[in-house]
Design goal:
With 252 residues, this protein is an alpha+beta fold. It contains 5 helices and 17 strands.
Length: 252
C-alpha cells in the first residue's frame, strides 16, 4: 500500500509525520493509494482542496484539539485500518465574489462561505435565491451558507441547524441579525444558487471567506454547490461523519 502523509506545521503533527513516514514510507502524492492527514480540521480542509486535483481518498488523524473531521490518532496497523474505513463524499461550495474594484475572485469551501462586516458599521445586504430576491435588506454582522459537513462548525455557533449528510440541503444562517430581528435563516435545496448583494459597500464594507480564504471589500457573492466535484473522505467504521453529525445534535 502506498501512503502519502500530509501534516500541519504544529510540532506534534510534525513529530507524528516523521514517525509514520519512517514506519510506512512516504509515497509521492501522484502514486499514493491514500492520503493520510495529520493535524486538525484546518489542515484537513486544506488537504481536501489538494485532493481534488489527485482524486485520492483522505484519512485524517487528529493531532489538534477538536478534530471533528478527523479520526483518532494511532500508528498501529494503519494499512488494515485504511482498507476497513468507510467512505463519504463531500461536495464543496464554489464562491464567485466581485470586489469594489470590479475584480472577480473564486474559491472552494468545504464547510461554509461567510460574509462579515469589516468596520463598526452593521452590514447591509440583499439575498437572492435562484435569481429571486428573497430578502430586500438584512442588517447584521454577517451571513453564511454552510454545507452539511460544515453545519456543525461556524454555522452551529451562529445558531444555525445541523444538517445530516445526504439531506441535500444547505443552511443559510445570519450572524447577529438586527433586522429582521427574529429571522433565524433558511434551509435551501443543495442545487440552489445564492447571491448576496452588499448594500453601501463604500460605507459598510464587507469581506467574504471560503473556509479560510478571504476576499475583502466585496460588492457581491454568488455561492453554489459543486455537484461535479466529489472529495472522498474515510472514517473508521462506526465513527463516520454521519454518526458524528447525528450525535452532535444530542450534545448539551
Amino acid at each position: 500500500m502506498n501512503i502519502h502523509f500530509m501534516a500541519s506545521e504544529h510540532p506534534e503533527s510534525q513529530q507524528r509525520f516523521s514517525h509514520l513516514s519512517a514506519q510506512y514510507g512516504q509515497a509521492e502524492i501522484a502514486d499514493a493509494d491514500y492520503l493520510v492527514v495529520l493535524g486538525g480540521d484546518g489542515q484537513m480542509l486544506a488537504a481536501m482542496r489538494e485532493a481534488i486535483t489527485y482524486q485520492k481518498p483522505l484519512f485524517g488523524m487528529n493531532c489538534g484539539r477538536v478534530g471533528f473531521l478527523m479520526n483518532e490518532y494511532s500508528d498501529a496497523d494503519l494499512p488494515t485500518r485504511l482498507r476497513a474505513a468507510e467512505a463519504v463524499s463531500i461536495h464543496p461550495l464554489e464562491l464567485t465574489a466581485t470586489d469594489r474594484h470590479g475584480n472577480t475572485h473564486t474559491a472552494l469551501a468545504i464547510n461554509e462561505v461567510s460574509l462579515l462586516r469589516q468596520s463598526h458599521n452593521a452590514a447591509h445586504c440583499a439575498i437572492y435565491v435562484n435569481d429571486k430576491q428573497e430578502m430586500e435588506l438584512l442588517v447584521c454582522d454577517g451571513i453564511l451558507l454552510a454545507t452539511p459537513a460544515g453545519s456543525t462548525a461556524y454555522n452551529l455557533s451562529a445558531h444555525g441547524p445541523i444538517i445530516p449528510l445526504g439531506a441535500e440541503l444547505l443552511a443559510l444562517t445570519p450572524i447577529s441579525a438586527f433586522r429582521p430581528r427574529r429571522w433565524r435563516g433558511a434551509l435551501l435545496p443543495s442545487h440552489s444558487v445564492v447571491r448576496i448583494e452588499v448594500r453601501e459597500p463604500d460605507f459598510r464594507p464587507q469581506s467574504v471567506t471560503a473556509d479560510n480564504i478571504e476576499f475583502r471589500d466585496i460588492t457581491e457573492a454568488v455561492i453554489r454547490q459543486t455537484d461535479d466535484i466529489s472529495i472522498p473522505v474515510l472514517y473508521d467504521e462506526g465513527h463516520g461523519l454521519s454518526e458524528r453529525i447525528i450525535s452532535e445534535q444530542f450534545n448539551y
